């Protein structure tokens, strides 16, 4: 069914198709009984225990929605109806901003990829907060992904993140600092150790004041060198973060394509292995003590399995959902159950970090967050 819908949607520009898709999800969210019924159908059948606990949050299965699809928290209930174990909204900035000039979103179906340079287009923290306050259904964890306004100088970035924490942190189940988008000039400089330490300490201190105990994650880029990943992990551990989200979009273009010269972040299948490499490095650097939410190039159950073995406890999707539609979660959950059963795995928690286990190093199999 979605193949027909997608064929129709893909006749429109990517951004207009996105707006139409979001409209459909908002309309779905207006039917609570239907949302609950659809969500129940998408949850695990129970053949394998797919539940995961990370930072005190319970995920019914490892497949969650990444930030970027619902920037203003306007279709959260419709997205939960699709079966996601968690939904992350944003990136949200303190003040509304239009984002970068159009066109700014491009499809590369031959590569199962997208290029975007949206630039944190959103209606601001107050609007997102109003949408969240109006919700009555809370079936699973909700994350709020925070950024800075484009016109805020980098030396004042902390103020923007702290302002977002004040407005949104009490309304979400976990908070994410996005310091890795390639579409806000200079933002990735915040991943440098000195600036990152100052930012994370300020955000964590404010978070403890307005929402004590709420988990705080950092979203990082796939373009970091292995040594830079080590530095980020060290800072995250020193600042007492709950975990990392690895990774954001990449500025690399590992293929030839007429659209490859377009500026922006590349997502989808080409990011799969760079993201997995960052996940593996972060797991190794922290010795499995820092929970990781993996994202990048997830289309199949095997893609989920790879990220779990690399060290991710939860796996987010974005581009795969756009290409495969609302039924994706249900299909991947069933396929993941079958895949793990074939491997003789009784619980998904047994898989996390298993790729690092070697004889005499069985501690590498210890699950994260449990």
TrEMBL record:
SUPFAM superfamilies: FMN-linked oxidoreductases. One of its GO terms (cellular component) is cytoplasm. FMN binds at residues 67-71, 91, 145, 178, 219, 247, 268, 297, 318-319. InterPro entries: Aldolase_TIM (IPR013785), DHO_dehydrogenase (IPR050074), Dihydroorotate_DH_2 (IPR005719), Dihydroorotate_DH_cat (IPR005720), Dihydroorotate_DH_CS (IPR001295). NCBIfam families: PRK05286.1-2, PRK05286.2-5, pyrD_sub2. Monomer. This is Dihydroorotate dehydrogenase (quinone). The lineage of its organism: Bacteria, Pseudomonadati, Myxococcota, Myxococcia, Myxococcales. The gene is pyrD.
């Amino acid at each position: 069914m979605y193949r027909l819908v997608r064929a129709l949607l893909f006749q429109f520009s990517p951004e207009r198709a996105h707006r139409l898709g979001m409209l459909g999800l908002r309309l779905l969210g207006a039917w609570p009984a239907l949302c609950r019924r659809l969500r129940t159908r998408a949850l695990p059948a129970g053949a394998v225990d797919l539940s995961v606990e990370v930072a005190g949050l319970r995920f019914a299965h490892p497949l969650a929605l990444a930030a970027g699809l619902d920037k203003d928290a306007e279709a959260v209930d419709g997205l939960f109806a699709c079966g996601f174990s968690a939904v992350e909204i944003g990136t949200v900035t303190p003040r509304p901003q239009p984002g970068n000039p159009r066109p700014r979103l491009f499809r590369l179906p031959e590569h199962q990829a997208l290029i975007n340079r949206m630039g944190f287009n959103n209606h601001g923290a107050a609007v997102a907060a109003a949408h969240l306050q109006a919700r009555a259904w809370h079936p699973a964890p909700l994350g709020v992904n925070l950024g800075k306004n484009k016109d805020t100088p980098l030396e004042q970035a902390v103020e923007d993140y702290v302002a977002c924490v004040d407005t949104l942190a009490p309304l979400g189940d976990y908070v994410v600092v996005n310091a890795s988008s390639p579409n806000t000039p200079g933002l990735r400089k915040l991943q440098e150790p000195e600036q990152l330490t100052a930012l994370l300490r300020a955000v964590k201190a404010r978070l403890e004041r307005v929402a004590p105990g709420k988990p705080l994650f950092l979203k990082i880029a796939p373009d970091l060198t292995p040594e830079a990943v080590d530095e980020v992990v060290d800072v995250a551990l020193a600042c007492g973060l709950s975990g990392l989200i690895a990774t954001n979009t990449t500025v690399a273009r590992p293929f030839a394509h007429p659209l490859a010269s377009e500026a922006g972040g590349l997502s989808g299948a080409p990011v799969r292995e760079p993201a997995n490499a960052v996940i593996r490095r972060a797991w190794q650097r922290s010795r499995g003590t820092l929970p990781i939410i993996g994202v990048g190039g997830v289309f199949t159950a095997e893609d989920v399995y790879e990220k779990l073995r690399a060290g991710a406890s939860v796996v987010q999707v974005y581009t795969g959902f756009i290409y495969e539609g609302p039924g994706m979660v249900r299909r991947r959950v069933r396929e993941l159950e079958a895949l793990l059963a074939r491997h003789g795995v009784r619980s998904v928690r047994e898989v996390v970090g298993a790729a690092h286990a070697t004889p005499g190093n069985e501690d590498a199999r210890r699950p994260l967050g449990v």
